[in-house]
Amino acid sequence: MSALDYPFEPRDFGVPVPVAQGVEWIRLPLPFRPGHVNVYRLAGDDAPFVVDGGLADAETTRCWEAQGEAPRRLLVTHFHPDHIGQAARLESGGATVHVPAPELAHARGLHELPGERLQATLAAFFKANGVALPPEGFGLGNGYRRSVPELPREAEPLQRGALPFAGEWTISFASGHSPAHALVFRAGPPTLAAGDILLPEISPNISVWPDAPEADPLGDYLQALRELRELPEDTLVLPAHGRPYRGLRRRVDMLVAHHDKRLDILRSAVIGQAVAAADVIPRLFRPGLKSSSIPFALGEALAHLNRLWHAGELERGRDDDGVWRYTER
């Protein structure tokens, strides 16, 4: 399959790079892989607005302070810490924050969850899917609250359709990676701020989590990809990680093929036997996963098993130990 077209090279953290009419790309640092998150300054009706704010840490704050004037509006695509982390600080500096309502509700629910309850919920989730709890557990307290010490207080919910403060830009939503990830698009020249939905080099994490163990996030994500494939092939895609690129339909096809391959692996795994998510993690991921990666690996395994279950290819039930197992229909 043809490689994607990368027309722009990255610069130092915090340095704006013009990539299209009314569009600037700004890389911000992350202390974990992939080492950066992209935010974008887009032209609005009366002033530019920013898509995503970066992590709530000192290095990211210094990058924003170096920009000079604070943004008047911040549009947060979803609740993950590297996207919403700076929202409260930018709000306190005068920015109006806009977030999809389901994303903000999810962020608040996580933020308010007592650490002990969170750890107990994860432990039960592991046990129900046949995964041994890491010897060191998951750390102490509420990790989300540590990453996002404060959420915006008066965020305005985003609605599908035209942005009232930037009429040429429109909003749609994609589920799967998060409850209602915002996508920001304009038709001419075609440009899509895609957040984590269309990353150029990796697939976004698509997981089942303890609050919705019967969900089908992979089905939601694949449907979002089918809809995005209708956009023009020459759309400039502005991803949250990696470089801006062209080749939207090629990238959609790559991502669909990636998940199809994983579904085929699991179709083979269940032949003649009942499997738990724990059994298929080694088939999907390399050995030696860090403890911090195990919840995401479990979530991804369940997302693919649940996709086959929802499609009617598998049956799902508990064994005598209370572990969820999947079998051929």
Report on the structure:
The chain has helices at residues 58-66, 81-84, 87-92, 101-112, 115-128, 143-147, 217-228, 248-269, 277-284, 294-310, and strands spanning 17-20, 23-29, 36-42, 49-51, 73-75, 96-99, 156-157, 161-163, 166-174, 181-186, 191-195, 236-239, 245-246, 314-318, 324-328. Helices cover 33% and strands 21% of the residues. The protein has one domain: 4-Layer Sandwich (Metallo-beta-lactamase, Chain A). The strands form 3 sheets. The protein has a 7-stranded mixed sheet. With 329 residues, it is of the alpha/beta class.
Secondary structure elements and pairings:
Elements lengths: L16 E4 L2 E7 L6 E7 L6 E3 L6 H9 L6 E3 L5 H4 L2 H6 L3 E4 L1 H12 L2 H14 L14 H5 L8 E2 L3 E3 L2 E9 L6 E6 L4 E5 L21 H12 L7 E4 L5 E2 L1 H22 L7 H8 L9 H17 L3 E5 L5 E5 L1
Parallel strand pairs: 4-5, 5-6, 6-7, 11-12
Antiparallel strand pairs: 1-2, 2-3, 3-4, 8-9, 9-10, 10-11, 12-13, 14-15
Helix pairs in contact: 7-8, 8-10, 9-10
